[in-house]
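Format notes (please read before filing issues)

Several people have asked whether sequences and structure tokens are stored in separate files. They are not. Every record keeps both together, in the order shown below: the sequence lines, then the token lines. Line labels are part of the format and must not be stripped during preprocessing.
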Amino acid sequence: MILLTGATGFVGTHLLKALLEKGYKIRALILPDEQIPFDETNLEWIRGDIRDKESLGNCFSGISMVLHMAGVVASPDNGLTFSVNFDGTRNLVDLSIENKVNRFLFMSAAAAKFKHLNAYGQSKKMAEDYLISSGIPYVLLRTPLIIGKGGYEFERFVEYVNKLPCFVIVFGDGKSIKRPIYIGDVTFAVLKLLESKKPDNKIYEIACKGKFTLNEFVDVISSCYSGKKKIKFHIPLKFSLLIAVVLERLLLDRSPVTRDMLLGLNEDVDFNVNRSLNELGLTPLEMPDAVLKCL
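Then the structure lines:
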């Protein structure tokens, strides 16, 4: 049986459906106060919170593999980011070792490789390092921004680009390289990694093959959703970060931009995907096609 964390989140929801269609037996972790979305053969819901190690005590009986998809993205609360992304991962790794789990697949992020780590990237990097040094057989999957319906980051970015009718404010020069990937390709990759029975202690990086600038990403979104490109006004990054700090202090979690978000937007997604895509037999959708698919 497989233990799936983040089963009600963006990636977890898509993955859970695909796993059940393939006939896998799944124990899906759900928060104590969440409503169970559906029941199905081969699916067992179990309540717990990865931040609370004691709440996970009943999760591991009969588990041979952990698919750790749970995480916090783009939160203004750095304490929550580290608590979920690092402390939660550490709890799961420790319990997996104690319960002799055979394999641990962890969903990480491109942010863990950024030159200037924001809080999200730092929390993911710490979680990666802990998993790698733990001794448990692992597979580590890094992804950039994931395009798909229900994806908080993507939908928030789309909403921002389309907020004003004729122009878009771009924080920074817009030249950073973005290589987003479609949710269907992420699910495909995880299923392929599951089918590979041999624990290989490898890091896989997947992304679209094309290298698009942030400016180009904005153009594709505005063209797909409004039929035309919009005028882009660029605000220098240093001044943008100052604006974000002020907005976060004034509006707290209602701030439309955060310092963490702006740092991430202005970092290049530095992936060499050839080995991973070849091993997985994956030909990902390019960014414009993935955006169109979400219309």
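For reference, the curators noted about this record: DSSP finds ten helices and 13 strands in the chain. Residues 78-98 form the longest helix (21 residues).
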